[in-house]
């Protein structure tokens, strides 16, 4: 009988009773018959698994079932061990303070000065250095990573800027309504309200109105306009030295300035210095009308 092609033998017919294997009888050796020649056949699968040698509680473990060989399982375990060794373990809520300090030390920079914050555009003049330094120290104490601290600080600044913008827009809306209500008398009445603030509270009150922004709040302008009217009713206008000529001249000058669109007090295109000088001029004129009590 000739050898099979799949077995790797040649199509030759050996002599009777003679095989190419070790069996002298030439029966089930590796030469003739089904024994095959030089090739190696893959034994049929019997359904056996490398997990069969494991205890029963591990054979069907979901973690091990996904590995086809024992080698895969071992390599995966070694990789997991490496990852665990380099990972940061979060302490339990009731862990000792030392554990929490050690944990945060792995997250935060070595020094608080390493936190870098970006100042929002246009905030240079109003930037609060004390707030920045305080936030930096607190972030370090709490163990915040660099990116987390920077993100929180940026959010806070955006929030504050948004709130400030909303307040400014609301005040401007109120002032526009006041301008529409008072018409051409707006600037004169606003200057009179300012004079009332200074008369009642002095420079300290003026500085407070300026620094807090309340000086532009429409409600405050209304209040001190009413105060101006009350002062005028109780103390009729008089000149610098009590004469009526000074008061009349001041009234005429105020009216002339308000009627002149080219005057720096009314001209939005005038320089900041010119507008400031015009405002001081109007303030002095109102002082003539409403002098401080001696």
Secondary-structure class: mainly alpha
Show unreliable segments.
1-38, 238-245
How many independent structural domains? 4
Helix content: 55-70%
The arrangement of helices and strands along the chain is HHHHHHHHHH
The biggest beta sheet is recorded as: none
Shape: rod-shaped
Structure description:
With 294 residues, this protein is an all-alpha fold. It is built from 10 helices and no strands. The model is unreliable at 1-38 and 238-245 (pLDDT under 50). Helix content is 55%, strand content 0%. The chain has 4 domains: 1-37, no CATH class; 56-86, no CATH class; 112-166, no CATH class; 183-289, no CATH class.
Summarize the structure.
The protein has 294 residues and is an all-alpha fold. It is 55% helix and 0% strand. It has 4 domains: 1-37, no CATH class; 56-86, no CATH class; 112-166, no CATH class; 183-289, no CATH class.
Task: Write the SSE topology.
Layout: H1 56-59, H2 62-65, H3 70-86, H4 97-105, H5 129-142, H6 146-182, H7 186-212, H8 218-234, H9 244-259, H10 272-289
Helix pairs in contact: 7-8, 7-10, 9-10
Task: Give descriptors for this structure.
294 residues; 55% helix; rod-shaped
